[in-house]
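Onboarding guide, step 5: your first structure request.
Type a short instruction followed by the sequence, for example:

Predict the 3D structure of this protein.
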Amino acid sequence: GDLERRSVPVLMHVKALPVEHKPTGPAAVGNFEIKASLDRALVAAGDAVTLTPSVRGDGNLRAVKLDDPQVKGLQILQPEVRDLTESPGDRVQSTRSFAWLIVPQAPGTYQLPALTLDTFDPVHATYKRINSERLTLTAAGAAPAGVATNRGAGEGSNDAADSGDKPEPWPPLRAQIGRAHV
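The system replies with C-alpha cells like these:
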C-alpha cells in the first residue's frame, strides 16, 4: 500500500524588500562584488576575445543576470553562465561567472562600459549598485603584412575578407566561435 509520512511543520517569516530606494529592476539579496577581465586586451579585427565578469558574494546568485554590454563596432554574443558555490566554515560563498565572446568588426580602440548589478544588503537593509571595472579593447588590422586586407570595405563589413583567393590568416569566424564554446 501507500506509505504516508508526516513531519513537524516549519514556520518561516519572509520579509518583503523595502520599497524606499528600491531599483526598478531585480536586486540580488546579499553582499557581492563584481570583477571583470578580458583574456586579451589586444586582438586583430575579426578575431574573438572573451570578456569574463564574475559576481561573488554571500547570497543566492542563481537569479543574477548582467545586461549584455552594447558597444558600437563590437559583435557581442550571448554569454555562457557558470555557477560555483563554496562553504568555507559555516558561510556560503557563491560565484556566478559570465563569458561573452566579443568580435571587433574593425580596427580601433573600444571602451567596454562597467557592468552593474543592483543589490540589497540584508544586514544593513540598504540597496546598493555595484560596478565592475571599465576595460579597454584594442583591435589591430585584420591581416599581417603581405596579406591583402579589406581596408576598402565599409565599417562592420567582414565579407570582403572572404572574397579573395589568397589564404586567410585565421580560420572563418564561425569556426573560431565554435572552438571557443567547446
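Each response can be followed by summary notes, for example: The chain has one helix and eleven strands.
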